[in-house]
Amino acid sequence: MDSDTFRKLGHELVDWVADYRDRVEGLPVMSRVRPGEIRARLPSEPPLQGGRLPEAIAALDPVLLPGITHWTHPSFFAYFPSNTSRASILADLVCAGLGVQGMSWQTSPAATELEEVVIDWLRQMVGLPDAFTGVIHDTASTSTLTALLCARERTGGFCQNREGLQGGEPPLVVYASDQGHSSIEKDVLLAGFGKRHLRIVPTDRAHAMRVDALGEAVEADLAAGLRPCAVVATVGTTGTTALDPVAAIAGMARRHALWLHVDAALAGTAMVVPEYRWMWRGIEEADSIVFNPHKWMGPGFDLSAYFVRDPQHLVRVMSTNPSYLRTAQDGEVRNLRDWGIPLGRRFRALKLWFHLLDEGVEGMRARVRRDVENARWFADRVDGTAGWERLAPVPLQTVTFRHVPEGFSDEAAIAAHNLDISRRVNEGGRAYLTPSLLKGRQTLRVSIGAETTERRHVEALWQELQEAARAGRG
Ligand SMILES: *Cc1c(COP(=O)(O)O)cnc(C)c1O
Question: Is the pLDDT of residue 166 over 60?
């Protein structure tokens, strides 16, 4: 492609994206296509001759858009939000345009040094002390895996690094609550602890980790000759945004020399608001912390912020340093390939930089407060309306609840009724939410936080849900 064509198509596509963002509110939030429908519209063989890019651009609307679930829709209430601000889109264009591989400082000093600057801005924004150093990873799953690898090597004195799983040491044990994210279990497996050595600690009525039960589990493992290694505390669980008590867990971690990793994938963003920081009180005692600005904050997927108290330990675990990667500046600079799992890395810092300059800390605080207030408004409706039942506290922006019609007492019937409500809402196309299971009970779950979600969208959702509940009983 020559430069003139690139310019022309580029302008056209920027217009297309801008128009898409403007009209998304009128589209059905959840895609309605059937499995295989999009595939069937596409040729099964690759083009032999080039020069046909305009066909792809012309197909965006008729072929692909029906197969898109609109995460930027103001009535997207499913999962957790995944925002991508317009500033972040522009940064991704620059990132691709530069085509940089930021594996070492020398392979593009600006990529490393801008990342050092903006990740430290982020640290300040969420009120973490300067004892923490940050690095950008792709996802929380990767950050938590990195944390568990570092924990394993600290407890084992680098024995696993040397001898793999054959070191003959007593098995190491990891602890997390029954509300911890599925990535914890996956990372425990990937890091070689083995499923048998993940302890699922029970939670209290607010769905937060019971520290007394954590203590008992640690004692039982010690008595059995195992080696307690790490605890993952979650601030803002995926099911209900429950808050594990970080300060108390940190006390337990200190007593037993456990690595404390805090998973605040969604909730980290809320800490830009000083009055919410009580939710992770004790955070300064963590060994590592992850949160995903790509969820609620605004820079697009993928951007996970990983903070550690001991970056030298991280580099010692992650570095391999073969001769072909060595450069003259190695002693003076960060080579970010040694701060995580992959060698190559994109210039992700650009989208954080663009987003922060565009929105400002005050802009972000206003949006987070708006979303939390909208969630409280919604929770008040649930609490104040007969037949509706809230199933968890609402510290942040997610409300977990269900509808129990008069005369319903059978759990299976209640579950079917609530699944029917979510199906009606989602298929209606005007809003999208995810049902989920909470300790065996079928729930509805509304998660607020798309950039464009205002009170009127939450009000419309509440109407929609009540109508779906009535229709389901009739
Ligand atoms: C979303 C989420 C994750 C996983 O996030 P990825 O970045 O997609 O790996 C982990 N923990 C919690 C609490 C989450 O909400």
Answer: no
Report which protein residue has its CA nearest ligand 1's atom 15. 238
> How far apart are the C-alpha atoms of 330 and 323, rounded to whole Å?
12
Mean pLDDT within 53-76: 96
Which residues 6+ apart lie within 8 Å of 342 measured at CB? 138
- Residues 204 and 210: beta-carbon distance below 8 Å: yes
What number does the ligand 1 atom closest to the CA of 234 have? 13
d(CA 304, CA 345): 13
Q: What global pTM score does this model have?
A: 0.96
Residue 173 binned pLDDT confidence (cut-offs 50, 70, 90): very high
| Cα 73 to ligand 1 centre (Å) | 21
pLDDT in tens, 316-346: 999 877 666 677 777 789 999 999 999 999 9
Q: Which residue segments constitute the domains of the chain, with CATH numbers given?
A: 1-30+69-83+361-474 (3.90.1150.170), 100-346 (3.40.640.10)
Centroid of chain to Cα 187: 15
